[in-house]
Design a protein that fits this description.
This protein is α+β, with helices and mostly antiparallel strands. Strands 2-3-9-10 form a four-stranded antiparallel β-sheet. A three-stranded antiparallel β-sheet has the order 5-8-7. Strands 6-15-16 form a three-stranded antiparallel β-sheet, with no helix packed on it.
């Protein structure tokens, strides 16, 4: 397995020194990991308490017998591929696919290859209506807007699971930290979950806050700099433990060390990316060791890997990046311990398409994708008002581009742990984002120790502040890995961008990019080819 057995390289040495340099800033508990962290204890206890609201009309998880080394599935714009080097996985022998809890769920319930190893809103919608709400995805503990929801009739079930069906959101219940520098002085809560003392807040400074977030992919994990949207997990092993105790409501103590290791080993070796686009066709160059022909209804077989043009999309080239990757590989803030300079040329997957001859449908679309890659790499952005960046550098305005935040080469997440607030969690965000149906929290910074003392925020999600307790972290979340975007709409942590068009329009409005209509479409086409 590439992820666990690669030889020591310069990348590994750089990673070692960066981890040593930054561990004091990011560790949650030196002795006990997430199980010693207050957030974990409270979240697990909350999920266990919610077992008093039993699920009815439920089915167990249906799982394929084998996950092949390469899996290719249709998605809205083409095909998504999952590549796990080595061999096929027998699911009955791997705890990722086993029922380790009490509600019929497995890791596979929320993390499936056709959606880039997460879920999409469309998939959730289809699974709900195909199963009459009995699919294990739909469980009161977090699939519903609140565990107390009425699910006695089909109409009531549809209402209870509306955020999961329509936006692919699950409920995350997190306790306000004891050291919080703020108070939640008001909650506009359409579901009564946070405002009910039985399931939510017991005072403005104590109790559980329910937020609604997109599940993150369990793929391309070796490129992660932060685990979970708010960076709360210290390791994938702890994440496997916490997910089983919370989402599957497993009986404590949860999966043992061997089971955690098997889960992590499986998911850490998965590389997923778009492999085929309905307009651009194959997204990767010739691969002589593997030939694929994948039929689509109404078309001739696709020679997905038989293309002599030197594009390097798809999961195979992505997997090949890993031996040279290290945390901080291209960080613009200068934390790279190896001293290599930052480059804004984050992606170079489709540069060969800029000079294609001819204006047929395929080549025209390919040239659009290539132009979108150039926009991503070169479009100048006047970055203002981003908590975690402008304030951290004490610069009101920072000249940058997409790669200032999405800086990991050919992956697209931040190469160090750096949660930011770009305004997605705002109660009234700029154009193109739909936050309807989400609760709104009015948060007042009450601690004189906070530089934001006396300020008030209105957000749909307090973000990392629910973990750190710091006012400065209100609304902060990480930027996710960008590979495989086409398979997992909607976008952003709260599902507020229904399409990639909406996501691009948000950035246009938020940062006044000045993109032309052609540049917007080119950027959308490029993002869809990742």
């Amino acid at each position: 397995m590439i992820a666990r057995s690669r030889a020591i390289t310069l990348a590994a040495i750089c990673n070692f020194f960066l981890v040593a340099f930054t561990v004091s800033s990011f560790a949650q508990s030196a002795a006990g990991g997430s199980q010693a962290a207050p957030w974990a204890r409270a979240a697990i206890a909350h999920a266990q308490r919610m077992r008093r609201f039993p699920d009815e009309n439920r089915k167990t998880q249906q799982t394929p017998r084998v996950i092949p080394e390469l899996v290719i599935d249709r998605d809205p714009t083409g095909m998504i591929a999952s590549f796990r080097p080595g061999a096929a996985t027998i699911t009955a022998k791997n705890p990722f696919f086993q029922d380790l809890g009490t509600n019929g769920r497995t890791c596979f319930t929320c993390h499936q290859p056709q959606n880039g190893w997460t879920i999409s809103a469309q998939a959730a919608h289809d699974r709900f209506f195909q199963s009459d709400g009995s699919d294990p995805l739909f469980r009161l503990v977090d699939g519903a807007t609140c565990p107390t929801d009425d699910v006695s009739t089909p109409a009531a079930q549809e209402k209870a699971y509306q955020l999961l069906i329509n936006k692919g959101l699950i409920r995350v219940g997190l306790e306000i930290p004891a050291n919080a520098q703020y108070a939640v002085v008001d909650v506009d809560d359409p579901y009564g979950c946070t405002s009910n003392p039985d399931t939510g807040l017991t005072s403005p400074t104590s109790g559980i806050v329910s937020v609604y977030r997109r599940p993150l992919p369990t793929a391309n994990l070796e490129f992660l700099s932060g685990i979970m949207w708010d960076g709360r997990e210290p390791s994938l092993e702890h994440q496997a433990m916490d997910a089983t105790l919370i989402h599957a409501q497993a009986n404590p103590p949860g999966p043992d060390g061997a089971q955690q290791a098997q889960i992590v080993d499986f998911q850490s070796a998965i590389f997923t990316a778009q492999i085929f686009d309905d307009h651009a066709r194959s997204l990767q160059a010739r691969r002589s060791t593997l030939t694929l022909e994948v039929p689509i209804a109404g078309t001739s077989p696709l020679e997905c890997v038989e293309d002599s043009v030197a594009q390097t999309g798809g999961p195979f080239a992505l997997a090949a990046l890993l031996p040279d990757f290290f945390i901080g590989i291209n960080d613009p803030l200068g934390l790279n311990p190896c001293g290599t300079p930052f480059t804004a040329d984050i992606f170079n997957l489709y540069a060969a398409w800029t000079s294609l001859d001819g204006n047929g449908e395929t080549n025209s679309f390919r040239k659009s994708v290539a132009r979108g890659e150039v926009v991503f790499n070169t479009k100048l952005i006047n970055i203002t008002g981003v908590a975690g960046l402008n304030d951290a550098l004490n610069q009101a305005s920072i000249p940058g581009n997409c790669g200032t935040c999405h800086d990991t080469p050919n992956v697209g997440n931040h190469s160090v742990k750096a949660p930011l607030n770009i305004g997605v969690a705002d109660a009234e965000p700029v154009s193109a984002l739909d936050v309807s149906g989400l609760p709104v929290f009015t948060i007042e910074c009450t601690s004189p120790q906070s530089p934001l003392f006396g300020q008030t925020f209105r957000v749909t999600d307090p973000g990392r502040a629910l973990i750190s307790g710091n006012c400065a972290d209100i609304g902060k979340v990480k930027g996710p890995i960008l590979r495989g975007l086409a398979a997992r709409a909607p976008y952003f942590h709260n599902g507020s961008a229904a399409t990639l068009v909406d996501a691009v329009e948000f950035y246009e409005g938020r940062f006044n990019l000045g993109l032309t209509d052609q540049e917007k479409q080119d950027l959308v086409n490029f993002l869809g080819a990742l």
